[in-house]
Amino acid sequence: MGHDPSMSSRRPLSLITRSTLATGLALIAFLGLAGLSLDRAYFESARAALRDRLQGYVYAYLASTDVGRGGRVLSPDSPPPHSDFLQPGSGLYAVIDGDNGYHWESPSAVGRRLGLQEHLRPGENSFRGPVQSSVGGMYIYSLGVAYDDARGQPVDLTFTVAQTETQFVSQLSVYRRTLYTWLAALGLVLLLLQLLLLRWSLFPLRRVSSDLARVDRGDSDRLEGAYPIELSGLTHSLNNFIENERRSLTRNRNILADLAHSLKTPLAVVRSRLELGDVHDEARKDITDQVQRMDDIVAYQLSRGASSGVPTFVAPVEVAAHAEDLVQGLEKVHASRNVLCEFEIEVDARFYGEAGDLLEILGNLLENAFKWAQHRVLLSARPMPERGKRRPGLEICVEDDGPGIDADQVERILQRGVRGDERVQGHGIGLSIVQDIVNTHNATLEVARSDELGGAQFRIHFSAV
Which Gene3D superfamilies does the UniProt record give (predicted)? Predict the structure, then answer.
């Protein structure tokens, strides 16, 4: 299966973002279901209220209707239960139908074909709607009633009252608009409240992250302060890790330094005996070569021991202060050749690593430049900040006005034990030490010709982290 580089470079969501998204989805689901339930409940309640109201109009017409002699129906003569029954096209209609062909309708229904004729048996009732008609959808309530005339003969009548759905729909729309507006506002308030609660709850974690960043920048030696009980174990372990890392680095450097020191002493004794002439010439040459090789290995391993890699928590080292001490010593050594070093070091140029690594880099590059320079050496350093990174990067550049290095010789001179010119004193391991340190710090080393001085140019770039 292929690897998608965009997946590895995509930044994970923060805890607050994850919690806010999860809470938002849960709120949307909950408030949505609550809104649907309330809407359905209100719809049923409003529909039941409409039925009761229409039923009340029917009872009012029922009370004002009577049957005379011969089964003649006396139409309602009292004022209607609502004034809309008197206004044509008002949307509220009443109709009375009888088995003997009797038909009566309210003034509001005159001239309209509503299709409200219905015959129900006495005691039956029905409520339906919305039923489509010539005036739109209507809700209809009907009731069957039996009257007795003067002879005791039953007269069946069906009372029907109808109302268009316009008022009901308008009422329902107002409720829904109000309901969902308030639910949306409530959801937004709950989300904001959840966000505030999350920020308050996660503040100790942000504090741990901030304190770790301070330790990472070298502004503090350890995590300090009171943390919640849930984080106390974590911060205690982190402090132990920081201390153990520093002790481990120091111990490893000391062990390697002691080993190198122990080897250099017997090597010095052997060298001195050779110089006294106690060994014949052929053996002396072989022994001298092997001693020289062992001496080079000791120097190389000692220098590697000084390189501690990239520690997790380290204080930044100022480049300018260490460079000045090195250059002063080299200028004295090469005073007879009148070689001087110029500085272009920015004030905030910092190296995030052990001071020994910086001294190895500057010392080897500057010593190499002084050996090959005619009169001028240029040392420059500048920070390379990047947005979103805790530590800014660093660029170090050493240039000289010597003969320079051919492009096809760059890879060769970076090999351990190889010198650019056998006539120049040295063991040939200085640049390889620099290369090792550069690789350890995941930095890059570029060798080219200096545009300003015309000689060699060594440029090292440490990335921001």
Answer: 1.10.287.130, Histidine kinase-like ATPase, C-terminal domain (3.30.565.10)
